[in-house]
Write a structure and sequence with these properties.
With 128 residues, this protein is of the alpha+beta class. The chain has a domain of 88 residues: Orthogonal Bundle (Arc Repressor Mutant, subunit A), CATH 1.10.10. Helix content is 63%, strand content 13%. The protein is built from six helices and three strands, in the order αααβααββα. The chain has a three-stranded antiparallel sheet with strand order 1-3-2. Strand 2 and strand 3 form a beta hairpin. Helix 2 crosses helix 6 and helix 4 packs across helix 5.
């Protein structure tokens, strides 16, 4: 992402530089995930489901800061691709619990590795 010449009034501000770095890091991460057919939000769901028992669907949306409608659509897409499984919550028939499938776990591992590589490349200039 090219940056036009910016005035010192911006580049001397730590908050501005941090926002710029965040935007670039997010764009690089999204690009790395796109190569695997994932978005950042989709990876967030897979990462939250990485370990443990089934998670409540509403919990996933709350942690990721996604509204209910978007959460349902996001999980529906992941389920259609065979990456997650949704089942009714035995304790609350109005709710659903979500778990990774084998394919979802395999993709989560590949995505995590791609993000580690991406972050390494992103941070390399800071380490030299």
């Amino acid at each position: 992402m090219a940056t036009p010449d910016l005035p010192a009034a911006l580049t001397d501000r730590t908050a501005f530089l941090l926002r710029l770095a965040l935007a670039r890091a997010e764009a690089a991460g999204e690009q790395a995930l796109a190569g695997l057919g994932l978005t950042g939000r989709e990876y967030g769901v897979l990462a939250l489901l990485e370990s443990g028992p089934r998670r409540a669907q509403h919990h996933l949306g709350a942690v990721l800061g996604i509204d209910r409608t978007t959460t349902v659509a996001l999980l529906g897409g992941l389920q259609a691709r065979g990456l997650v499984d949704r089942a009714p919550d035995p304790a609350d028939r109005r709710a659903h619990r979500v778990a990774l499938t084998g394919a979802g776990e395999e993709l989560r591992q590949r995505a995590a590795a791609a993000l580690v590589d991406c972050e390494g490349r992103f941070l390399r200039p800071l380490r030299s």
